[in-house]
Amino acid sequence: MLHLLRKPWLLFSLAATLGGTAACSSDGGDGVLLFSVEDDKTLGQQVADQTDSTYRAKGQLLERNTRNARAYQLLDGVVNKVLNSGEVRYRNEFPWDVKIIKDDAVQNAFATPGGHIYVYSGLIKFLDNESELAGILGHEIAHADRRHTSKQLQQQYGISLMLSLLVGDNPNQLVQIATGLGQLKFSRNDETEADQYSVVYLNKTQYACDGAAGFFIKAESQNQNGNPPAFLSTHPAPATRIQEIQTKADQLNCRTRTVSNSNFEELKRII
């Protein structure tokens, strides 16, 4: 298989075969995704393994072990409420795990294809309440669930290179992708869709469903002071974007909910 795929005509043939069952982007304006859901799972696991290795070597990966069991119990509680909203398309197909990168100076989060979510401790500590955390996690879950990450990687790196990754034939490029995933530039349409689905997901939970807007409002305030969070620099958030989240939340009548923040405050203390 590895030797065959090195031949350009076979790469083209496989791409054409994938194209026969290609998944069009939901907004119709960002191209066609030529990889399957199974490809998302395979590539996502490869990228997640490399991401784990990269941050573990730096001593920044908060491992899922006995020492950090309580932190992950609290974080998983939020993630699972979003995942179990009944609105996540690939809830049962993707593995859906979340890991913390210990870096209080970075306010960022990102998702691999196939549902592996990474969140920096700096982002968690930046947020004011659990609804905001749920909103940001919902945004990242949407990127994976709506397959935005796979589509953007295909556009950025090309079909042939992505195919080589899927068969394990390009480990050096895998390192580059894993390292740069947190700075991946999504289209305006994909960012808007992720925002909208974050609201939809949270509508079926206990959280105020405009939680993501709360983060962006605070982030924009800091941006005016010349110190924008990393998440804001890679996910442009104009005032119209905040308004769109709040408008969607008003339509669903789920904007004014309040939840206890005791678990969230404990999470911030122990990470």
Give an account of the 3D structure.
With 271 residues, the protein is α+β, with helices and mostly antiparallel strands. The chain has one domain (21-270). The chain has 14 helices and six strands. It has helices at residues 2-5, 8-20, 37-57, 69-83, 121-126, 130-145, 148-157, 159-166, 171-180, 188-203, 211-224, 230-234, 239-252, 262-270, and strands at residues 23-24, 32-33, 61-62, 97-101, 109-111, 116-120. The protein has a four-stranded mixed beta sheet. Strand 1 and strand 2 (32-33) form a beta hairpin. The longest helix has 21 residues, at 37-57. It is globular and about 50 Å long. The N and C termini lie far apart (44 Å). Residues 1-29 have low confidence and may be disordered.
The figure for the number of domains is 1
Helix content: 55-70%
Low-confidence stretches: 1-29
Average pLDDT, rounded to a whole number, is 86
How are helices and strands ordered from N to C? HHEEHEHEEEHHHHHHHHHH
Strand content: 5-15%
Q: Report Rg.
A: 19 Å
Q: Tally the beta strands.
A: 6
Structural class based on helices, strands and sheet pairing? alpha+beta
In whole angstroms, the N-to-C terminal distance is 44 Å
User: What composes the largest sheet?
Assistant: 4 strands, mixed
Instruction: Please give the order of strands in the largest beta sheet.
Output: 3-4-6-5
| Inertia-based shape | globular
Q: Helical stretch count?
A: 14
Enzyme class: hydrolase
EC number: 3.4.24.-
Cofactor: Zn(2+)
Family: Belongs to the peptidase M48 family.
